[in-house]
Amino acid sequence: MRHSKMKMTGRIINALLIVAAVLVLPSCCKKRTFCSNEQLKIAFTGFDRSSIRTVILKRYTPGDKEKIKALDSAQLVNNTPVTVGSKPDTSWLGNYTITSGSLQGISYGNDWVVFLPAINRTIRFTDIYEGDNRYTKVKCGDNDTKCVNNIKSYAIEGFWVESNIAYIKK
User: Fold this and answer.
1) pTM value?
2) Cα dihedral sign for 154, 159, 160, 164?
3) How confident is the prediction along the chain (170 residues), in pLDDT tens digits per residue?
4) Which residues are paired to 37 by β-bridges?
5) In whole angstroms, how far apart are CA 88 and each of 45, 47, 81?
6) Are residues 9 and 81 both part of a single domain?
7) 22 shares its domain with 57
8) Which domain range does residue 23 map to?
9) Nearest Cα to 95, choosing from 78, 75, 112?
10) Which end of the chain is more exposed for a tag (fewer CB within 10 A), N or C?
């Protein structure tokens, strides 16, 4: 009799533990969400609009000193109207429209060239470093949380800059 009471008590405890696990574990569940890479914010300053209307963006293998064979490229055009009250001599690459290719901007993992065909000017971006935010843990079932791995620094034409914004001046 005593053995059956202990067996029954053991079954009740096991059942309670299973119920507790079913209720508690899903709320503790965490999964990795990998962060997307931030794009370098690029501003063209001091240019007349016709000289920066079209931009060609090229992506290269990191460390490719010759810059002969691009991995891919895109052409972007600035169709935004100049508004009264804004600085007419500043255009942000983020406002340009892609007319060919799929590149949208400069990010970590490659070397880059920005080419301004109207004035035959080439600007090289290398050594792009990012933060350490490769992934974040979110609650299971949370599909809305997004994280970004920020750009910390880069080299433009060999000059080191600690920022996530590049100002290309005339």
Assistant:
1) 0.72
2) negative
3) 555 666 666 677 666 666 655 555 555 687 777 777 889 999 999 888 889 999 999 999 998 777 778 999 999 999 876 655 555 578 899 999 999 998 989 998 899 999 999 999 999 999 998 877 666 666 776 666 677 778 899 999 999 999 999 999 98
4) 149
5) 9, 9, 10
6) no
7) no
8) 2-28
9) 78
10) N
